[in-house]
From TrEMBL:
Compartment(s): Cytoplasm
The entry's keywords: Cell cycle, Cell division, Cell shape, Cell wall biogenesis/degradation, Cytoplasm, Peptidoglycan synthesis, Pyruvate, Transferase
A molecular function GO annotation: UDP-N-acetylglucosamine 1-carboxyvinyltransferase activity
Pathway field: Cell wall biogenesis; peptidoglycan biosynthesis
Residues holding phosphoenolpyruvate: K23, N24
Active site positions: C118
Gene designation per UniProt: murA
Reaction equation(s) it catalyzes: phosphoenolpyruvate + UDP-N-acetyl-alpha-D-glucosamine = UDP-N-acetyl-3-O-(1-carboxyvinyl)-alpha-D-glucosamine + phosphate
Primary localization class, coarse: cytoplasm
Family of this protein: Belongs to the EPSP synthase family. MurA subfamily.
EC number(s) from the headed UniProt entry: 2.5.1.7
Sites bearing 2-(S-cysteinyl)pyruvic acid O-phosphothioketal, chain numbering: C118
Keyword flag Cytoplasm: yes
Name of this chain's protein: UDP-N-acetylglucosamine 1-carboxyvinyltransferase
Length: 429
């Protein structure tokens, strides 16, 4: 069923909500359970499409999986009986690339379809492949599949990453935890989800030091075992709610968060004049006036996250003055701008730079999500705009946000989901 989100905007968000577990940690930790050859109990998982897809992939290759209403998944990977993951599901998400590292590590070979995910740039996986090759695997890409074999087993080595890559850092960790000897990942990604995956692997018996710094050292162990683990809160969901609170000139307390993960956004929002109050596990955001314009450059952690650039553009669309946003990570991550221009935003783009001339207000319009965070940005735009906004392509938003309408309704938003029904003149096929 095709769905749209309908928002009657202009209501300041007020109240308290909780964020769920991090998508980008969950989608790596679930494939990592393959290495346990036993039972893992993973808590605080978000109920989002990407998690449900990985659950199905795990079940298709022989794992026994149960996902309960409280966000706890029990995964028994004892009887996984194939190292091939080539079903169509794989192409529906980016993180299916983690199956490569996990299956190669467990079976000494792996075959996966090339991953999908948000179309925000080229997104090659050359660094993942180079990493597997450095560990001793032969890797071929043909017919839309990556085929890796390591008949002699994987051997630890030093791997220097040309670019900081979240996916390649985690995939190399997965491949090397049971390799023979020591692996060092130099110029590693430092995102909170990289650290969370390392902590999970350590819980399963891996020897990993330095996750969260530029150099991660891994000493291969013979085998890992099952464990119980709780996923960290979602940094990007937290950031989206922080931005929505300020964009609607509201007062929102976001609970179950790790405030240190939010420092880049918190600092930028304070520079905009937004009030932010932090406790041990909550952040309160208050804003009663137009924010000030700022400059944002997206950067790997601890820099400003590219995943929050799109919602932040919307917040700045009604700031006082001219803001400049430079997207340094993904070359096509400005697709949301065409849509928010329909709502009255004054933004020009050239290559990787967007210049945002703050306007007094946005007005509701029919718009369409082109990717996950573009969808989140349009929800923020709809919440702050006068009048009604209808957002098509909700499937992208469902990839990464758990019960987003329910959480926003709790904060007073007028938001609902409806089936898309085409009128006769729209229904041309
Ligand atoms: C499932 C997941 O965790 N997704 C996140 C992950 O994506 P993902 O793991 O795809 O992002 P990377 O950190 O790998 O990408 C960073 C940059 O490196 C490039 N690159 C990456 C790998 C490679 O082999 N070759 C290469 O050139 C990419 O095109 C991009 O320009 O990190 C991104 C950057 O924080 C986030 O936006 C995504 O939400
Ligand atoms: C780009 C994202 O996701 P993915 O890498 O899974 O496409 C995201 O979470 O913003």
């Amino acid at each position: 069923m095709l769905e749209k989100i309908v928002i009657n905007g202009g209501i300041p968000l007020k109240g308290t909500i909780e964020v769920t577990g991090a998508k980008n940690a969950a989608v790596a930790i679930l494939p990592a359970t393959i290495l346990a050859r036993g039972i893992c109990v993973i808590e605080n998982l978000p109920r989002i499409a990407d998690v449900l897809i990985i659950k199905r992939i795990l079940a298709e290759i022989g794992a026994e999986v149960e996902f309960d209403e409280n966000g706890t998944m029990t995964v028994d990977t004892t009887n996984i009986n194939t190292s091939k993951v080539t079903m169509n599901l794989v192409k529906r998400m980016r993180a299916s690339y983690y199956m490569l590292g996990a299956l190669l590590s467990r079976f000494g070979d792996a075959e996966i379809s090339l991953p999908g995910g948000c179309t925000i740039g080229e997104r090659p996986i050359d660094l993942h492949i180079k990493g597997m090759e450095a560990l001793g695997a032969n890797v071929k890409t043909e017919y839309g599949r990556v085929v890796a074999t390591a008949p002699e087993g994987l051997k630890g080595c030093d791997i220097y990453m040309d670019k900081v890559s979240v996916g390649a850092t985690i995939n190399i960790m997965l491949a090397s935890v049971c390799a023979n000897g020591q692996t060092s990942i130099i110029n590693a990604a430092k995102e909170p989800h990289v650290v969370d995956v390392a902590n999970f692997l350590v819980c399963m018996g891996a020897k990993i030091k330095g996750a969260g710094t530029d150099v991660i050292r891994i000493i291969g162990v013979e085998k890992l075992h099952g464990c119980n683990y709780s996923i960290i809160p979602d940094q990007i969901e937290t950031g989206t709610f922080m931005i929505a609170a300020a964009a609607t000139r509201g007062d929102v307390t976001i609970k179950n968060v790790i405030p240190t993960h939010m420092e880049a956004l918190t600092a930028k929002m304070q520079e905009m004049g937004v009030e932010i109050h932090e406790g041990a596990d909550f952040i309160r955001v208050t804003c009663d006036k137009r924010p000030r314009s700022v400059k944002i450059n997206t950067m790997p952690y601890p820099g400003f996250p590219t995943d929050l650039q799109q919602p932040a553009t919307v917040l700045l669309s009604t700031a006082e003055g001219t803001s400049m946003i430079t997207e340094t990570i993904f070359e096509s991550r400005f697709k949301h701008i065409k849509e928010i221009r329909r709502m009255g935003a004054q933004i020009t783009t050239e290559d990787r730079v967007a210049v945002v001339e703050g306007v007094d207000r946005l007005t509701g319009a029919p718009v369409s999500a082109t990717d996950l965070r573009a969808g989140a940005a349009l929800i923020v735009a709809g919440l702050m705009a006068d009048g009604t906004t209808e957002i098509q392509n909700v499937k992208y938003i469902d990839r990464g946000y758990d019960h987003i309408e329910d959480k926003l309704k709790k904060l007073g938003a007028d938001i609902r989901r409806e089936e898309v029904v085409y009128t006769e003149d729209e229904d041309i096929f």
